[in-house]
Amino acid sequence: MRTNDDRQYVELLKQDDFSAFNALFKKYAESLYAFALSITREPYIAEEITQLVFLKIWEKRARIEEHLSFKSFVFSITYSETISWLRKEKSEKRKMELWGNVASFSSNETNYTIEFNNIQELTNQVIEILPEKRKEIFKLSREQGYSNKEIAVRLGVSVKTVENQISAALRTLREKLGETGILGILFYFITFH
Known about the structure:
Rna Polymerase Sigma Factor, Chain: A; mainly alpha; 2 domains
């Protein structure tokens, strides 16, 4: 089948011609599957991606540009879907590892309480050694619940200064607490809840 046949099939596809869709599927499904498989190394996932690509093609058929290369278009979608799957897979693995660590850590409540108390104490120590202005801004934000704008007005500084000081304080805390267990009890409950 020649490339200009793709253009004819796309024109028919845009008119809801399922036989044109089927012809494009037969022409490209195998090579798209092989492409996805070469990246994912998972036959089942490569098959899912291939089916998803053709589902998207059918759903968006009215918007396909027939003057552009259909082959490039379909491989571009496949690449995008494969990368999307890889990102999701990486994120899911990370979540599972994190929750596995939290579950095993919290199974021993005594150790958990001791570790949590240690992290609270370390957090307070780190806050106390922050530069004076940074410490004041951070405490107003996290301990007293003031908004960045309220802190800026109260201290006569810009909101940007407040944001920068809070970011610097969080960076310091993250570095210090990251050395403790379970990512500093999930960075001390995402910095004080």
